[in-house]
Design goal:
This protein is α/β, with parallel strands linked by helices. It has 8 helices and 12 strands.
């Protein structure tokens, strides 16, 4: 009988919850980081239908050897109500993408924005004094907007199919830093320095583009938070246009260690 060495009866379980789930890279990347730190733990993908979220999570969080959860589309905002306590970023953003089981309950925090800024930093790009076009104002988009705002861009134009949601986010950014020209606006590649997609448009086999253009000015830096396909149609167009690009995978690398640090800090079973 064959055996594997990476899982056994003492293995601690982490899960990433979303719908769809096939696009995520977290299972392999987070598990690799857990193993690198010497933990007997594994992250598994969990596909939950939106209408089943509350009932499913209520039971899932009772599993005795489950020590943490990561949330992806479309559950980052809904996950806030599962937390006993929220970190500073999660409170500001109103979204959670990592939930750690601590001694006194579940502690939530969001790392998308921090991971995105770190990916740009590692690629040698700065947001300071830049004109940013952000598409998507959901959980990931909100986290990215707040993290980018902390880097002092000149302007932040935000679009979402829910115009009211995007407008509220822009107002929150303007209140946070009045020096930033933050406002709702239709997607454009004109008079911008950085184009960012934080929406699910273009994920997996979705043939759409988050912005309807056939060319992007080569001076524009283009980022897409989607990790599958790789590259996305947006990033393919950016590369064909001669643009510098930042991939969703790079954002994932930027936040993995921070997510696992969060699990380590709050979870007594892993330390």
């Amino acid at each position: 009988m064959n055996e594997v060495s990476y899982v056994n009866g003492e293995t601690r379980i982490f899960g990433i919850v979303g719908h769809p789930i096939a696009q995520v890279r977290s299972p392999e990347m987070v598990t690799a980081e857990l193993v690198r730190r010497g933990w007997n733990a594994i992250l598994i993908p969990i596909d939950v239908l939106p209408q089943d979220f509350d009932a499913c999570l209520a039971q899932l969080m009772r599993v005795a050897n489950l020590d943490g959860l990561i949330f992806t589309i479309p559950f980052k905002q809904a996950a806030c109500r599962l937390a006993s306590a929220l970190g500073e970023q999660a409170r500001s953003v109103g979204a959670v993408n990592a939930l750690a089981r601590g001694r006194n309950g579940w502690v939530g925090e969001v790392f998308d924005g921090l991971g995105c800024v770190e990916a740009f930093r590692r690629a040698g790009h700065s947001f300071k004094n830049q004109r940013v076009m952000l598409i998507g104002a959901g959980g990931a988009g909100r986290a990215i907007a707040f993290a980018v705002a902390a880097e002092s861009p000149r302007s932040l134009r935000i679009f979402d199919i829910g115009a009211e949601r995007a407008s509220r986010l822009a107002a929150s950014i303007a209140e946070l830093n009045p020096d930033i020209d933050a406002r709702f606006g239709k997607p454009t590649v004109e008079a911008i320095d950085i184009l960012m997609n934080a929406s699910p448009v273009g994920m997996l086999s979705d043939p759409r583009m988050p912005i309807e253009v056939t060319q992007i000015p080569p001076a524009v830096i283009v980022f897409d938070a989607i990790v599958k396909p790789e590259p996305t149609r947006l990033l393919e167009l950016a590369q064909q246009s001669g643009c510098r690009t930042v991939f969703g995978r790079q954002m994932m690398h930027g936040q993995i260690s921070k997510v696992v640090d969060h699990f380590e800090k709050h979870n007594a079973t892993l330390v």
